Amino acid sequence: MNKRMVFVLAGAILVGCSSNAPTTAPTAVPITAAQRTTDVIADGKVLPVRDVTLSFTQSGTLAKILVAEGDKVTAGQPLVQLDTRALALRLDQAKVGLARAKAKYDQITAGAPPESVAVAKAGLSKAKAASALVQTGVLKSDIEAAKAQLADANAALAAVRNPKATDRDMAEATLNQATATLKQQHAALSAAKTAAKLAMDQAVQALTQTQITYASTQENWQYVQDNRRDPFFHALKLNDAQQQQYYDLMVKAEAAMHSAELQVQTAQVAYDNALQAESSGVSIAEAKVSDAQARLDQLEYPDDSRLAAAQAKVSLAESNLARLQGGARTAQLDTAAADVAQAEAQLAQIAAPARDVDLAAAQVEIDAATIAVAQAQYDLDQATLTAPFAGVVATMDLTVGQLMNPALPAVVIADTQVWHVETEDLTELQVVNVQVGDAVSVSFDAIPDLTLPGTIRSINQFGSNRQGDIVYTVVIDLVKSDPRLRWNMTATMTVGK
Asked: By 3-state DSSP, what share of the chain in percent is helix, strand and coil, each rounded to 5?
C-alpha cells in the first residue's frame, strides 16, 4: 500500500458495526528517546524536472489533434489546433487595410495627378483671357457667363441650406436601425450575464456540498487512524480490504471536491467574460447611435463653414456680374487681376509638394494598419498550441469538434528525461537534521529492487500546518534515472546518519 496514504474511516459505517464504539480519540503515546533514530526517512513522489500545462488564449472549436498521450515531441512542434478559418479571414482583411493605407500614402507623396494640374493651368489661362477681355471691353458673352456663374452659386447655396429629402430619410433610417440594435445588444448581453451568474452560483453550491462530504469522510478516517492500536478497535475485526474501502470513500470525496472547485473557477471566468462582453457591446452600439445622430444633425443643420463658403461664392458671382454690367472699368480691371492671381495661387497649390502634416496623418494610418495585421497574425498563431520544450505528452483528453475555453487546460507536456523526488512529510523535528546538498537514498514502492542515490536540492523555508504537524517541502535531485520511473510514483527518501 502507498506509504503516503492517510486512512480515514467513515464514521457512519463504524457506528453501524458497534453501538459501543468510543466517541473520543485516546491520548497518543509519545515516542521515547530510545525509540528515535538519527536517520531521517520521508515519503514523497516522483516528478519530472519540468512540466507545463498548455491552454488556448481564445475560445474556439478544436479542429486538429496532431499528437496523442505518450508521444514524444520536440520544441516548437504543433500539438493541437483550433478552427482557424475566421482568423485567417481577419488576417486577410487586415492586410487589405494595410495595403489601402500604403496606397493612400503613395498617392499623397506622388502629388496631384497630371489631370488636376492641367485643369489648374486651364483655369489660369481662362482667368488671363478674361482679364484681356476686360481690358478690351465688355462683351455680351461675358455678361451671360457671369449670370450662369451666379445661377450655379445660388443653386449650390440652396443645396446646402435644404438637403434632399432622400438623404434625410436615409440618415433617419440609419439612426433608427442603430437605436434598435442598441436595445437588442443590451437585452441579449444582459441575459447572457444573468445566465453566467446563475451558473456560477450553482457551481458554488455544488462545491459547498462536496466540501461537507469530504470533511466528514476525512474526520471519520482520521478517527480510525488514531484508534487502530486500541484493543476495542481490533474487536471490530475490520480487515485491510474493509479499511481500504473507507479510505477510498475519502479519496473519492476529495476528487469530487477538486472537480467542483474547477467548475467554480470555470463559471467565474465565464461570468467575468459576460460582464466584459456586456460593457464593450453596449459601448459599441451606443457609439453607432451617436454617429448616426451626428449625420442626421449635419443634414438638418449644415455647419457654418459650408454655409459660409456657399454664400461667399454667391457674393463673388454677384460682384462679377455687377462689375460687368456697370461702367467702372477700374473695378473690372481689379477683379480680372484678382481672378488671375487666384488661378495662379490654385495652380501653385496643386503643383506644390505634399505637406508634412498630410504625410504624418497617412503614416499614422499605415502604423495602425500594421498593428492590425500583427494582431491578426498573433491571434492566428495562438490558435495552434506548440510544445515549449522537448518532452512527452503527459495528459491530453480532447475531442475534435469540442468547444475550447481559455480557462480549461488542453495539453500537459513533461520533460521525463530527468526526474526529481518531492516530499512534504518532513516535520519540524526532522527538517532540522537535513540540509541542502545532503546525500539521499531513494527507494520506490512500485520498483522494490531499485534504489537510487540523490542529493537534496532545496528545503522550503515556510512550514505548512497539516493536521496539527508543521511539515516542510523538500526536493531531491536523483543522480541516476531508470526507464521504469513514472510521474507521481511513490518514493521513500532516507538521509543517513
From this structure: 60, 20, 25
